[in-house]
Task: inverse folding
């Protein structure tokens, strides 16, 4: 398939596909005359790159990860990387949940100890101060 079709299948611009090719993120496609001919493997790798970028994976990480043998990606290495990425994200979720729990605890302590007439119990709505009652 030609680059226009790859662009439609991957939702990537032609410029982006060529950039990834120049950076070695996808194997150099074979040529048919003056046109590059891409395979389904190219499409799958490009989709993987797009998804990985949404997860915060950098292009340099991807370059170190995506290795080719006979112009095919090493999917077992990619799978191992995704397992590690999942573990990393799970750790971040747990750390964030712990922070949220601490914030909730602080809010609870403040709400229990703040006098009703404190400015901390007032909010401004439409330019008017409104007391928050417990």
Result:
């Amino acid at each position: 398939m030609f680059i226009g079709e790859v662009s439609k299948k991957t939702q990537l611009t032609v410029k982006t596909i060529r950039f990834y090719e120049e950076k070695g993120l996808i194997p150099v496609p074979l040529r048919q005359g003056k046109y590059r001919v891409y395979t389904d493997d190219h499409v799958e790798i490009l989709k993987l790159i797009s998804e990985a970028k949404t997860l915060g994976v950098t292009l340099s990480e991807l370059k170190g990860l995506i290795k080719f043998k006979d112009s095919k990606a090493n999917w077992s290495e990619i799978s191992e990387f995704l397992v590690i990425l999942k573990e990393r994200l799970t750790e971040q979720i747990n750390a964030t949940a712990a922070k949220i729990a601490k914030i909730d605890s602080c809010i609870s302590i403040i709400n229990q100890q703040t006098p009703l007439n404190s400015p901390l119990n007032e909010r401004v709505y439409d330019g008017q101060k409104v007391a928050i009652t417990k």
Q: What stands out?
A: The mean pLDDT is 85. The beta strands are 30-32, 35-37, 68-69, 72-73, 122-125, 128-131. The radius of gyration is 26 Å. The chain has two domains: 1-66, 74-134.
